[in-house]
Amino acid sequence: MILRGLVRIGQTLVVLLIVSFATFGLLKLAPGDPVQLALGAEYSETAYRSLQREMGLDQPFLVQYLAWARDFATGDWGRSYVARTDIFTFAVLEALPVTLTLASLSLFFAILIGVPLGVLSAVKKDSIFDAGAAVFALTGTAFPSFLLGILLIWLFGVKLGLFPVMGYVSPWQDPVTGLYHMVLPALTLSTYFIAMITRLTRATLIEVLEQPYIAAARARGEPRWRVIWVHGVRNIAMPLVTILGLQLGTLLQGTVLTETVFSLPGLGQMITDAVLSREYVVVQAGVMLTATLFITINLLVDLSYPFLDPRLRAR
Amino acid sequence: MSSAALLEVEDLTLHRGGNRILDHVTLSLAPGETLALVGESGAGKSTIATALMGLLGPKDARIEGHARLEGQGELLGMPERRWSKLRGRRLSMIFQDAGSALNPCFTVGRQLVTVLRRNLGLSRTAARARALELFERVGINDAEARLSAYPHQLSGGMQQRVMVAIALACNPDLLFADEPTSALDVTIQAQIIRLILDETRTRGASCIFVLHDLALASQSCDRIVVLYAGQVVESGVTAEILEAPRHPYTAQLKSCVLEIGTRDLDPPEGSVGSYAAMPKGCRFARRCPRALPRCAEERPPLVPAPDGDRALACWNPL
Amino acid sequence: MAAVTDMDSPTPAPAAATGPGRRSSLFLRRPFFTIALLATLAYVGAAVFAPWVAPYDPVQQSIDAMMAPPGPAHWLGTDSYGQDILSRIIYGARYALVIGLCSVLIGAAGGLVIGLAAGLAGGWVEWALMRVIDSILALPSLIMAVAFIAILGQGVDKVVIAVGLSMIGPFARTVRADVMQVRVQLYIEAARLMSIPRWQVIARHVLPNVVFPLAVQVTIRISEAILVSSSLSFLGIGVTPPTPDWGLMIAEGRGFVAFAPWMSAMPGLALALLLIALSILGDGIREEYDPKLRGGS
């Protein structure tokens, strides 16, 4: 098990290396000369050369990559001229927490609502409730989140005036106001996952409930609720976590859209703004950060399997 | 049949998907008695056990008839809540494949302790001590360590011993053992059967074995009920039945089992066939060497024989 | 062995009513599938016959009819430039479908090349290509598309390329899996033993086994491509105004939710309905043709 874990970690590092290389290489291809950009409209040949040397741009590609990778690993990500801050501070300390808060809150909502919905529709298979849940699951997975966000803003913000529709207050500093501001964004982002988890929970639980150990649990007098919620649900944890792990990318790209809809200053917003203002260093940092986050969480999901399913533990 | 029967089943009929899986099954069981349900694959033996445990809901099957448990009254048609009070405490069951009948996500100790705590209301420590004791009784060595093992970490024999411990944890009056050894090695089969018999006997519990193996049944059970395609064809005391089977099907089963090597094998020809296309009368008629024209048309009733404690359903018995 | 028969099953085997041979047609079994197909065809029709179907010119601005609510003159209302939303939605179907289809085809073509190479090469080349596929899969497709847009710039053609490139990963993975399956089958070995040239083996044995599942994947993933491309437009970095693109229209309406909710809602519902229809079609096709789902592993 430990060996398997180490191999998996090694693989992850290779993937990270390739991603970083590709990110660096691709954005090198981007139009525009960073030296020229930094110097402005008028500059002398010598000034150009000296800045080029200072920025290390006269070096061979591989050397430039290594220097960039070293800087990235040590947190020296350069300065954003548009946002007028240090990119590391901007990305990791300011934008990332917003994105992570939104993502984790949405995931929390999704599990809190999706699992019970799925369990109920599995238990009441072929009932009207089940049919309703199926329609919701189908619509929910196909509905574009940004449209949903706007509809929620219109309904809860404009028509009913129940929730604030714009602006961000950190839930870590002011939990009540912060969470209040997060309700609509999190609901927007989680709808897809609620639908997906409902679908998945239903399908896997129906299968689990046909297993002999479920009949055996009933045969020893376990009441119905325990058979379903303890013996059944414990056994769908594994497929659930697997799929959620695979869907993390969807969650991350969902945050990009949701942040734009609700004007939340997260990573997605940072990357989009940087693309619009053609600030490639920030795009690079944002893409690398997203990839690292995604790859790391996937690794954690992978390593968590043995804890979820005893059969995968070393004997 | 004595009036002090522990379990009395009368005309148990079960339909599933338009097919009659069980057809007027009648049997009874005295306290402390061991009964074997014998028949080939698809005869409905396991279905009887699951139906009498209340494990088949109205969605799974349509059940008619009567099943009375001493001190409880009619079982069939009880709501799930009353069934779950009965299961584990008075009725209990051992499944065919212990490997898949134990929840893979919980340690076997936890599964046993839960039963003790929930059904007997024992405290955590008391339940654990009792679990340890039960494990030792069913012959699990190193019981302390095995309590915290997951099912997949145990051998098939060990898993079945755990199942026995769980099934007998609350001293049930009636234990169903559904092919408890068919998933095990031959050498371990006898041990497990012995264990179940010993444990039920010392507790004075009754046991209904579901077996496809007549030889095993003859060694272990007081009485035998022979089933063919959901119909009881013959029932009675084991020794009497095996000595002088009167139903042609029982005779075929016996010849196929007990006289291998001594004479030509004479297995029942063909297979049970589709439930959708069963004859109106005796379901064995098509494969029966002694079939009369009336056999396929008219169902022979299960008639208690005048001599001894047995019953037979045949128009042309041996 | 003294056993009568091997096992006792509680029920006799059910009649083989679900076998592939006895299946009724996809349309009869799934009424939703038929409805979804009709809806999709309606969108295709709107896209093809846009100039004849649309009541107005999609980019004709009108100061008199700015932000008009849905009514007899403008069935779905007008936007902040007075452009007719229904006409823009009808023309928008062209962009959505063309961008979706083209980018999926780019993704499938790229995936086919990489997947074939990885599956057939073996050894360290395969290992390296697999890690490359892993890396492509390591980025959510929208983020990757954003990165490509950063390099390529905005515009319909750029969006097609960016979305197409971002979709290579999943295609490459399935192609490689299919190649692996073919590779273990004997006839490839046999062909090799008879020293048939490699390209012939690929053309005759590998490609037919790969292309069909790939085609199934393409149809399933069109909705994903449409969603990603309209997301780019919604973020304001995809197609440029005044193109009648649904994502762009939704984004433009975002600021006017309070006064003119139809500006976002109408194109949004057009997009959502198409995506739902396509996802029903995808589910149906997947259940019908995906060998992995059928095997039930």
Automatic annotation (TrEMBL), chain A:
> Which cellular component appears as one GO term in the record?
plasma membrane
Q: Where in or outside the cell is it found?
A: Cell membrane
Main location group = membrane
The portions of this protein that span the membrane are: 12-30, 102-123, 135-158, 178-197, 280-301
ABC transmembrane type-1 domain location, by residue? 96-301
**Record Gene3D superfamilies:** MetI-like
Q: How does it sit in the membrane?
A: Multi-pass membrane protein
Single annotated GO MF: dipeptide transmembrane transporter activity
Q: Which UniProt keywords apply?
A: Cell membrane, Membrane, Transmembrane, Transmembrane helix, Transport
Give the residues annotated as coiled coil.
none
Concerning InterPro entries, the annotation shows:
BPD_transp_1_N, MetI-like, MetI-like_sf
Q: Which SUPFAM superfamilies match?
A: MetI-like
Regarding protein family, the annotation reads:
Belongs to the binding-protein-dependent transport system permease family.
Q: Which PANTHER family match?
A: DIPEPTIDE TRANSPORT SYSTEM PERMEASE PROTEIN DPPB-RELATED
What is the name attached to this protein's record?
Peptide/nickel transport system permease protein
User: What organism, scientifically named, is this protein from?
Assistant: Palleronia aestuarii
Lineage, broadest ranks: Bacteria, Pseudomonadati, Pseudomonadota, Alphaproteobacteria, Rhodobacterales
From TrEMBL, chain B:
| InterPro entries xrefs | AAA+_ATPase, ABC_Ni/Peptide_Import, ABC_transporter-like_ATP-bd, ABC_transporter-like_CS, Oligopep_ABC_C, P-loop_NTPase
PROSITE patterns for the chain: ABC_TRANSPORTER_1 (PS00211), ABC_TRANSPORTER_2 (PS50893)
**Keyword check for Lyase:** no
The record, for SMART domains, names: AAA
GO biological process terms on file: peptide transport; transmembrane transport
Q: Name one Pfam family in it.
A: oligo_HPY
**Mind naming one GO cellular-component term on file for this protein?**
plasma membrane
Q: Where in the cell is it found?
A: Cell inner membrane
Q: Which domain of life is it from?
A: Bacteria
Protein's UniProt keywords contain Cell inner membrane = no
How does the protein associate with the membrane?
Answer: Peripheral membrane protein
One example of the protein's molecular function in GO is:
ATP binding
Q: What is its main location?
A: membrane
Q: What keywords appear on the UniProt entry?
A: ATP-binding, Cell membrane, Membrane, Nucleotide-binding, Transport
**Where does the signal peptide begin and end?**
none
Q: For the ABC transporter domain, which residue ranges apply?
A: 7-254
* Record-stated family: Belongs to the ABC transporter superfamily.
**What protein name does the entry list?**
Peptide/nickel transport system ATP-binding protein/oligopeptide transport system ATP-binding protein
Automatic annotation (TrEMBL), chain C:
| Organism name | Palleronia aestuarii
Q: What residue ranges are annotated as transmembrane?
A: 32-54, 95-120, 132-153, 222-239, 259-282
**What keywords is this UniProt entry annotated with?**
Cell membrane, Membrane, Transmembrane, Transmembrane helix, Transport
Report the residue ranges that make up the ABC transmembrane type-1 domain in this protein: 93-282
Question: Where is it predominantly found?
Answer: membrane
Which PROSITE patterns would you find in this protein's record?
A: ABC_TM1 (PS50928)
- UniProt-annotated stretches for the region Disordered: 1-21
What is the protein name stated in its UniProt record? Peptide/nickel transport system permease protein/glutathione transport system permease protein
Is the Transmembrane helix keyword given for this protein?
yes
